[in-house]
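Notebook p. 47: complex prediction with 2-acetamido-2-deoxy-beta-D-glucopyranose.
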Amino acid sequence: MVARGFKICLLVSSLFFIIVAIVIVTLILTMFKPKNPDIFINPVDLENFQLLTPNSTTAPLDMVVTIVNPNYGSFKQVNSGAHLKYRDTIIAEVPLEARLFPARTTTNVSTSADITTEKLIADPNFWSDVEGGVFNLTAEAVLDGKVTMIKIFKLKAKIYIHCGISFNITAVDASSSCISKIKL
Ligand SMILES: *[C@@H]1O[C@H](CO)[C@@H](O)[C@H](O)[C@H]1NC(C)=O
Ligand SMILES: *[C@@H]1O[C@H](CO)[C@@H](O)[C@H](O)[C@H]1NC(C)=O
Ligand SMILES: *[C@@H]1O[C@H](CO)[C@@H](O)[C@H](O)[C@H]1NC(C)=O
Ligand SMILES: *[C@@H]1O[C@H](CO)[C@@H](O)[C@H](O)[C@H]1NC(C)=O
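Predicted complex, structure tokens below:
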């Protein structure tokens, strides 16, 4: 009798632990499942942007990159590679300093890309775009770093970013749309 009661008790508690384990794992998978950050690129100070200046082969394009980290983990960016492209030609590197993106916060990163003007003006497409009043650039970036969850778990992560930036020359305005993908 004692042995039987013990077996039932063991069975019930094993079942209980299995259920608790399933609940915890499900919670971790849903809550901590990495979400892709939202990225916005806003070129700033466009009124003062001059593509062609005497004695200079580059033109600095200032911009603010807004990164919304929707995750319960922070992301520490260690390395990065980012550039601007006009059609298939890389026309500028975008410097992005190492930094921390805390969990569930929005971070604005200011940067400036030195556009190699000769690459742009050598492209006949550029001049027809200028005549049309609109020209587009793409921005591509890979952020390399670590995701930290509840200060304990550290995982290597990469964030891949692809943006289209559209400049309206007559309105001296720009808009962007980005997609991003986080890979652990
Ligand atoms: C450009 O360079 C030339 C020759 O080096 C110089 O005479 C001129 O003043 C420079 N122009 C500007 C705007 O710096
Ligand atoms: C980031 O910049 C945008 C516009 O440039 C602004 O609306 C927003 O408040 C800024 N966010 C933070 C956290 O600084
Ligand atoms: C520039 O991008 C906008 C928005 O993505 C698109 O509608 C437009 O056709 C593009 N224009 C050129 C000249 O590539
Ligand atoms: C550019 O801006 C002007 C003035 O705001 C507007 O009339 C025009 O439709 C815009 N062009 C494009 C392609 O969005």
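Notes: The pocket of 2-acetamido-2-deoxy-beta-D-glucopyranose (ligand 4) is lined by residues 134, 168, 170-171 (CB under 6 Å). Residues 36-183 form a domain with the Immunoglobulin-like fold (CATH 2.60.40.10).
Next step: compare against the earlier run before touching the bench.
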